[in-house]
Amino acid sequence: MSGNPEQERPSGVEAAVEAQHVREEVLERAGTAPAGDPRDHLVFADELVAGYVPEVNILNGCTLTLDEGEVVGIIGPNGAGKSTLIKTIFGLIPVRSGGLSLRGESIANLAAHELVSRGVGYVPQTQNVFPTLTVEENLQMGAYLRPKSFAARFDAVAELFPLLAQRRRQKAGALSGGERQMVAMGRALMMEPSVLLLDEPTAGLSPIYQEEVFQRVKQINATGVSVIMVEQNARRCLQICDRGYVLDQGRNAYTGTGRELLEDPNVVELYLGTLAKSA
Amino acid sequence: MRRRLVTVLLAVITAILVIPAGAVADDQGGETLNGQIRKPETVEGIDITVYQGSEEIGTATTGPDGEWEVEVPGPGAYRVVLDQESVPDEYVVSERPGPEHDEVQVREGQQRTVIFNLARPGEEEGGSSASPSEPAQEAAEEEPAQGEGTPEGVTTAPGVSSATPFGTKVVQLTVAGISFGLVIAISAIGLSLIFGTTRMINFAHGDMVTFGAMMALLFSTGATFNDVPLVVAALIAVVLGALLGIGLERFLWRPLRRRNVALIQMFIVSIGVALILRHLLLVGFGGNRERYDEYQLQEMIRLGPVGVTPRELTIICLSVLVLVAVAAMLQFTRIGKAMRAVADNRDLAESSGIDVDRVTLYVWGLGGGLSALGGVFYGLSQSVYWQMGFHLLLLMFAAVILGGLGTAYGAMVGGLVIGLVAQLSTLWFPSELMNAWALAIMIVVLLVRPQGILGRRERVG
């Protein structure tokens, strides 16, 4: 809100209206995403329709693929359905129509704990630790389905997050937001997942912790875990992602490699905002 | 935020409900005077006559087990006389308390026990009774389990009468408070864990306590079953209590949750379940106060200044053992940790691969079994009647809120505090107010520490 408001406001409104038109055109165009073969991808979400309230769909036909070893970012404005997409993939929200498969096998509407046993880990955006349990117990809950592998996995996870070994006996509820995020990601890694779903892992963290989280995600990916992450820090996310999806109104608006999206003037104009332009 | 709302709601409901519970007395009639000649052994054929003023009310003769009972027309003061002629030659009537009790006060609905002792001639002076300076205490010590004739919901302490010195009273009431608090704690763990794992307030928990007490009564004294020992009957009751909990979860609460019934509706449903269960028990067992056959007339063990019946001591020890076992289970076992995890964050537990429905089922089984055990203990130290659990429920709510909603350890601490406050308040205030004091303490603690003693503040942001 700098400069002269008398002059900027009308042009701002016009720009917004125009941007809305462009967004709708893009969505029209993107509506027919090419259907692929589920067996070619690690995770394949095809034309997903899902929502919380009956008859109100948040996802209106979202398509997403994740291949072995990839980091895929999902960005988009508030209410685009980013978190809904990741929750639907993890079975927390029922699939109303469309296909959802893991290595070619349908996982639509499987209970979350069944997905965990198939190698999918999920870190929710908020309330992602057990606050009255110690850090170690949090990680034990992560390995709940394979208690015998706990010791070995604990060492592996502690190598990624040395903090977890230091704070082993502390209650998770006493940790700071950034430390909790480490516990949450560590917990999700205890089952040695092949797919890790991260829902806005940097939300509410200080810039230093945000950067640490992005670095950790790259490290986790380097150990062979494929990652789907939803991010509000769109620009930084696209920098570390192999591919990105821009969602809008529950549909794919743009898809491409991180670099392509970062350089696409429409994406910059419509979704990355002024911060990205000036950077 | 929702946790705080629930806390306030529960506190208000509890406060409202405690008033009728304290005030309503049971109009039962059926006052009797009774006793058992058993010192030095049970003696048959001794005549005991009860007078009111000069009018003879009735006479009873001791049976083969030394027991006698005379029905009296109502509350009042009676004179009870043992006919010395009927005492066999090998015994004499002990000087304490002698062959005659003058002013035996019978309260409404009370079945008052009167003590007569016999002795072998010549042995009397060196007899096993307590020091001669404490005749009043001696008589009180052998009083069986209390509760009869007292207002409903009021728990009496053994070995305390108006003649007891203050210091002894404090110690005695502390012991009674610990015992009562432990019973509340055992019963309330399930209530707290169920709230923790499902966010549901189980109003039927008190009636699950009654269920346990009555099942033990059914198996230990019922004519239909061949009088199994109370210990075995208690174990059966615990198993049945666990099955009741599991059944309720599996066939009522889980389907309701699956259909996304809101918590407030579930709360009302649980009130319905409570009413149904309570009145089924009323129909099945009648409205009378009953007692277990075993462990009733007991002599107090003196541990320094504390006098405690073996029954009470056993209840305390067993309760502590059970609480330690439950705590160890929650702290160290895989399923225990999972229970705490689900109580902490149900969605995250599901996302971690925990089968939350199964854990909830175990929680109901554990809660049902523990409440049944609490019922047996409560029935042993007081008496068994159809509303006993309902009256305990208020104190369980108070314990759970006081300790911190949703944590088992909170229920334990809260139970002890409530039990102690309730008993010790009778030092200065009428015993009818004991539950009110317990709830007043709850309110004070909540004003200072809204999350309860062991509760955790919700961290914002």
Automatic annotation (TrEMBL), chain A:
Gene3D superfamilies: P-loop containing nucleotide triphosphate hydrolases (3.40.50.300). Residues 43-274 form the ABC transporter domain. The keyword Methyltransferase does not apply. GO terms for molecular function: ATP binding; ATP hydrolysis activity; branched-chain amino acid transmembrane transporter activity. SMART domains: AAA. One of its GO terms (biological process) is L-amino acid transport. It comes from the Bacteria. CDD domains: ABC_TM1139_LivF_branched. Keywords: Amino-acid transport, ATP-binding, Nucleotide-binding, Transport. Belongs to the ABC transporter superfamily. PANTHER family: HIGH-AFFINITY BRANCHED-CHAIN AMINO ACID TRANSPORT ATP-BINDING PROTEIN LIVF. This is Amino acid/amide ABC transporter ATP-binding protein 2, HAAT family.
TrEMBL record, chain B:
InterPro entries: ABC_transp_permease, BCAA_transport_permease. This is Amino acid/amide ABC transporter membrane protein 1, HAAT family. Belongs to the binding-protein-dependent transport system permease family. LivHM subfamily. It is found in: Cell membrane. GO terms for molecular function: L-isoleucine transmembrane transporter activity; L-leucine transmembrane transporter activity; L-phenylalanine transmembrane transporter activity; L-valine transmembrane transporter activity. GO terms for biological process: D-alanine transmembrane transport; L-alanine transport; L-isoleucine import across plasma membrane. The lineage of its organism: Bacteria, Bacillati, Actinomycetota, Actinomycetes, Streptosporangiales. Residues 120-161 are annotated as: Disordered. The chain crosses the membrane at residues 173-196, 208-225, 231-248, 260-281, 313-330, 359-378, 436-454. Keywords: Amino-acid transport, Cell inner membrane, Cell membrane, Membrane, Signal, Transmembrane, Transmembrane helix, Transport. Its main location: membrane. It is a multi-pass membrane protein. The keyword Endoplasmic reticulum does not apply. One of its GO terms (cellular component) is plasma membrane. PANTHER family: BRANCHED-CHAIN AMINO ACID TRANSPORT SYSTEM PERMEASE PROTEIN LIVH (PTHR11795), HIGH-AFFINITY BRANCHED-CHAIN AMINO ACID TRANSPORT SYSTEM PERMEASE PROTEIN LIVH (PTHR11795:SF371). Residues 127-138 have a biased composition (Low complexity). Residues 1-25 form the signal peptide. It comes from the Bacteria.
